[in-house]
Amino acid sequence: MYIIVAIIVFGLLIATHELGHFIAAKACGVKVVEFSIGMGPAVYKKQGKETLYSLRALPVGGFCAMEGEDSKSNDPRAFTNQVAWKRIIILVAGSAMNFLLGFVLILLVFSQAESFTTPTITGFMEDCPYEGEDGLMAGDTIYKIDGERIYFSSNVGFYLGRGNGKTVDLVLIRDGKKIYLDDYPMTLREYEQGGETVLKYGLYFGVKETGAAARLKYSWYCVLDFVRLVRLGLVDLVTGVVGIRDMSGPVGIVGLINDVGQGSENVSDAISNIAYFTAFITVNLSVMNMLPIPALDGGRVLFLVVTWVTERVLRRKIDPKYEGYIHAAGLFLLFGLMAVVMFNDIVKIIAA
């Protein structure tokens, strides 16, 4: 059942993205030739006044085909004949819709939350060495760790763990003022908890915020945290901390959503957990699609900016066919990467 839900969810993410392009194109007066959800052979078609609407067999993509999107056109309503700012709005709209969907999903998940724990220290474990006026004090709010903003108490352990394991740069809020602790020695230590020895930093967090304003604020914080996780994931990929084998494509995402559903205690928890995970995926898609890589919307925006600068500075126009060549090459490489990632996903499923 959850595999079917996962496939529907994946289709929803693509539909939302393409819907963003579609709405922006229509608002900017651009002719949309076809709006499709899915790829491959069409299983349903309906011709509108101007646009062909189609549903295709494979829920792994979709498109909003605009007149003159990748080639010259004499139609004044063609995409390529629009001013740069309109084209940028249309290109960005897909990712904006994914981002908005992520925020709405998190807001729905958090609407059931009675309270939110803040990164404000309420106490210390016995013999914790970090307590003191020159260190940390009860009532301090951990604002930043190594330059990264701390939104939730769960962020604290995560970003302390990403450090060098010896020292960190902390920014605290104490009595309304910022306190800076640079190169502050902070490591995991052994503590007795519940009759067991555990590795902890020795901090307790317990101040809670409630109400509609808190739900709205922490929903926004959560989406920002998702964006940051994408950035950190890219940094880890470039620096070699993780490899291509750690990436997941459509097959892997469907599998993960299924695992999230299967691992939930009941249907209600499954819906909430899948919604939360879907929010992360859609924000991930939003950010990744705006990277300045050929074939992605971010690459198209970059090419628009380069074209605009070239025309204004060098007084020369770039033939649109060259942009088409660049995006075609980028799409070829992107499909190659997707094939490798999909193969890895299938191997993981078989080996599991």
Quick tags:
352 residues, alpha+beta, Pdz3 Domain, 2 domains, four-stranded antiparallel β-sheet, two-stranded antiparallel ribbon, 12 strands, 22% strand, globular
Describe it.
This protein has 8 helices and 12 strands. By secondary structure, it is α+β, with helices and mostly antiparallel strands. The chain folds into 2 domains: 2-109 and 279-351, no CATH class; 117-209, PDZ domain (Pdz3 Domain). The strands form 5 sheets. The chain has a 4-stranded antiparallel sheet with strand order 6-5-7-8, covered by helices on one side. Strands 1-2 form a two-stranded antiparallel ribbon. α1 (2-27) packs across α6 (267-289) and α2 crosses α4. The longest helix has 32 residues, at 320-351. It is globular. The protein starts with a helix and ends with a helix.
Helix coverage percent: 40-55%
Name the shape in a single word: globular
Structural class: alpha+beta
Query: How are the strands ordered across the major sheet?
Result: 6-5-7-8
Distance linking N and C termini: 19 Å
Count of individual helical segments? 8
Unreliable residue runs: none
The Cα radius of gyration reads: 24 Å
Strand percentage lies at 15-25%
Tell me how many strands there are. Answer: 12
Number of domains: 2
SSE pattern? HEEHEEEEHEEEEEEHHHHH
Which sheet architecture does the biggest sheet show?
4 strands, antiparallel
**Could you tell me the mean pLDDT?**
86
Oligomer state equals: single chain
